[in-house]
Amino acid sequence: MSADIRDFGKLANGRVIRVITLRAGELTARVLTLGATLQDLRLAGTPWPLVLGSDLPGAYAGRLSWCGAVVGPVANRIGGAQARIADQDYRFPPNDGENLLHSGDDGVSGLIWDIAEATGDAVTLQCDLAHGFGGFPGARVIRATYRIAPPATLEITLTAQSDRETLVNLAHHPYWNLDGTGTTSGHSLSVAADRILPTADGLPLAPVPVEGTPYDLRRAQPLPDLPPLDHNYCLDASDNLRPVARLTGERGVTLVLETDAPGLQVYDGRALDSAPYPGLTGQPYKAHAGIALEPQLWPDAPNHPDFPSIVLPAGQQWRQETRYTLSRA
């Protein structure tokens, strides 16, 4: 099956964004070369989008800069915007108070990626980062592969390699709304984790049990009943894909998320505001229009030696796999 590749629009600097449409089984996905972004995802028989996105390039230059994108090279926060790498201290321009969030203005979510390979049901995008880009060491090659496995699974594989020791924690950052409505108030969520990282000023503390707390999602809970969420759930240690989360809408669509990552960041979307840009449903997104489920390593790992390491040694490959399986009642 030949690849469906078209122009999507241009950035303010004139660079062209391409969109690749993937089709197989019951799924249709649209992926942008800007940030390797999942711009749209549709399930046959369900006449609304399942992820947040926009048809306007300008939306991704600001309000929706991380929406659906691959974020990194280090996703989430680095406390104090500083880290020690290969016995050297590095400082980065903070963009979240005093911290670095999603690698700041030089993150891969803002880059135009190259199309390395494309077919009708899969695409591999690549970006090459020069040594020092974003403040991190190493000439790095980062790849993101999207593939649809019938009947209705979207597979994402992220890889990275570097010629020097560096830090890598790539994450896919989609916002989900399985109902096609203005908020996720009709959704319920379960996460297979018995520990969570509490936070102070947005930065993680030592893991604590979810038992007896309102953050216990081992059994599905309605999203409106949950406390404010922007937390990492500590998943069982495994190098293999396993189901870690289940999201269900009130209109009959269910998402099962599998990953081999050790953490799942859950963000409730309370600060979403895409105005003046409309989303895929025709109206600007507002608070709680979607929920972000982000498989990744744990945040602020360079400042927590007991957290899973995000160090990538020179010449080795970093790899993460995630599967999103959709079904309809």
UniProtKB/TrEMBL annotation:
InterPro entries: Aldose_1/G6P_1-epimerase (IPR008183), Gal_mutarotase_sf_dom (IPR011013), Galactose_mutarotase-like (IPR047215), GH-type_carb-bd (IPR014718). Keywords: Carbohydrate metabolism, Isomerase. Transmembrane segments: none annotated. It holds the Pfam family Aldose_epim. The keyword Iron-sulfur does not apply. The keyword Calcium does not apply. It comes from the Bacteria. Belongs to the aldose epimerase family. This is Galactose mutarotase. It comes from Rhodobacter flavimaris.
